[in-house]
Design goal:
Largest sheet: 5 strands, antiparallel
CATH architecture of the largest domain: 2-Layer Sandwich
Distance between the termini: 53 Å
Order of helices and strands: HHEEEHEHEEEEE
CATH superfamily of the largest domain: NusA, N-terminal domain
CATH class of the largest domain: Alpha Beta
CATH topology of the largest domain: N Utilization Substance Protein A, Chain:P, domain 4
Number of strands: 9
Number of helices: 4
């Protein structure tokens, strides 16, 4: 699978215009998520992919807790027990044990694909927004893509911005497809649509 991992990372990084490190991180999260399903109890799993060979190793992790506050043996280990293995280990560090790396079946691969694409979409959205903010263009023209709860989602290029109802011209009947000119308040976000910059009528 190692060669396939490297090919997948390269293809997704180029296609989505995101850093290879983001794709590797997404793939590690997907592998960890699939590996956790092998356990009936709650567990913490870490997967590490070699960036050069594509080989990956899996670990089950326990966070080191003070003996008095120790509560969850599936996720934590007492400091006194952890120091029997490693005398220098500190609180909140992790004790890890190697796991047999799973071989993806059809269901596992599909679940991994969903995790990967979601993380890449998030990174891609953040990159586009950061690129836009760096241009410092606050006054833009866009098209109403859809109406949600009375608020308008305005699209311009690959960016979508939220135009709140209370920022619209009173009694204006806005429809999907309408062209609008708005001022973007960069860095300001709406609580229910945290992925959108907030737009105001110019």
């Amino acid at each position: 699978m190692s060669r396939e991992v490297l090919l997948l990372v390269d293809v997704l990084a180029r296609e989505k215009n995101v850093d290879r490190a983001i794709v590797f991180g997404a793939l590690e999260s997907a592998l960890a998520s699939a590996t956790k399903k092998r356990f009936t109890e709650e567990s913490d799993v870490r997967v590490s992919i070699d960036r050069n060979t594509g080989e990956y190793v899996s670990f089950r992790c326990w966070q080191v807790m003070d003996d008095e506050t120790f509560e969850t043996p599936d996720l934590h280990v007492k400091l006194s027990e952890a120091r029997k293995r490693n005398p220098n280990i500190q609180l909140e560090e992790f004790v890890e044990e190697p796991l047999e790396s799973i071989d993806f079946g059809r269901i596992g691969a599909q679940a991994a694909k969903q995790v990967i694409f979601q993380k890449i979409r998030d990174a891609e959205r953040e990159q586009i927004l950061n690129d836009f903010m760096e241009r410092k263009e606050h006054l833009i023209s866009g098209t109403v893509k859809r109406i949600e709860r009375g608020n308008a989602i305005v699209e311009f290029g690959k960016i979508e911005a939220l135009l709140p109802r209370d920022q619209m011209i009173p009694k204006e009947n806005m429809r999907v497809g309408d062209r609008v000119r708005v001022c973007i308040a960069c860095g300001s976000f709406n609580t229910w649509a945290a992925n959108y910059p907030v737009a105001h009528y110019a």
